[in-house]
Amino acid sequence: MNKKMWDGRFAKATDLAVNAYNSSIAFDARMFRQDIRGSQAHARMLGSIGILSAQDVESIVTGLGQIGADIEAGRLAFDPNAEDIHMFIEAELTARIGDAGKRLHTGRSRNDQVALDLRLYLRDEAQVIREGMLQLYDVLLDLAEQNTETILPGYTHLQRAQPITFGHHLMAYVEMLARDISRLDDCVRRMDVLPLGSGALAGTTYPLDRAMVARELGFAAITQNSLDGVSDRDFALELAGVLSIFMMHLSRLSEEVILWSSQEFAFIELDDAFSTGSSIMPQKKNPDVAELTRGKSGRVFGSLITLLTMMKGLPLAYNKDMQEDKEAIFDAIDTVLLCLPAFTGMMATLTVRPDRMRLAAAGGFTNATDLADYLVKKGLPFREAHEVSGKLVKLCVARGCALEDLTLDEFKQYSDLIEIDIYEAISLETCVSQRQITGAPNADTVRAAIAHARQRFAD
Fold this sequence. Notes:
The protein is mainly α. About 60% of the residues lie in helices and about 5% in strands. Helix 12 (about 290-310) packs antiparallel against helix 13 (about 325-350).
């Protein structure tokens, strides 16, 4: 059995079941790059304050670099019997360079070491996620720009409500995604704080230059309380929250894609490369990417609940419960990174059916509000105008026709204020084009929103 680096106080070897239960290398091994970077920075700092000799610093930094290269190249496998990635790398380093490897841990604890590694890892992964979000953001903008005049019904309660455009509809998701990216940026800003130097919980008596380590690792600041430095997992919770909201947004769009691609709607057709078939029904073309995304949102939500539940009862400072933070946040990250390219590809390749969209907008009395507004502009109080419009809709439902199919005489039976210009006023194109205030579906207004959105993350 491998000798533990902390077993000097113990008279018995750790039970094998406890070894397996306690070990985290199966999932924290993915942080080896961050562990090596953090240890190299720590070694250089120890050398700068005279704790380590220049020769020891050189041996440690070079040895760690070689370990990282060997892991990357597949020449060094992780030891499944190791307690965690930190102990694995330190033991491997000591085996390679001797006593200098044993000096590396001077002035730090695994508590602040793992807090550092996790911040570094999540910061790195957040950047990858951000790039994926931006790619989806651009795809939605492109699709919106192609459909600024593609009329479709807007819905409330999943009932046809008012005519808008497909571009306007997609821009709602662009706004959601912009908030997701902004939240991610805010999360990373609060994550960007160096905990190393907090020790186990009470700092250290060594005169560590924490600012030097922060600069070398690219942190914007250092933690101001050693207890908080090792016990804080707000940054992981916040990232899980950001990813949960993002996945909720993808799930909402997924639901619409599923509806739109059904034969009942037929507003869009998904590309064959982003659809699947049935093992028994030859005609089927299933929106599996959207359905899986809708389902996987719950998995990310579960990671957030796991982290909240794990942290809610912990006294300061570090507790072993906190080892459970990694699998939850890692799974949330993995799930989002799995969803992004498939979902983005699905949206980039779908085919829009403008004819079907317009037919649906024309068939659901989506211009009834504009009829009421027409009467208001003629001087009728809105409540009376609303009643007149409702009665005309009731007439059309009974006859199986649209408002614009009524004759002028039929309109006048309900209000003498209605003139021949009613047909222009309630045309779908007019209903959309007259809505020109910021945020509305007028084509020029949507184009302006798209231009603004393209500049939002231009830097």
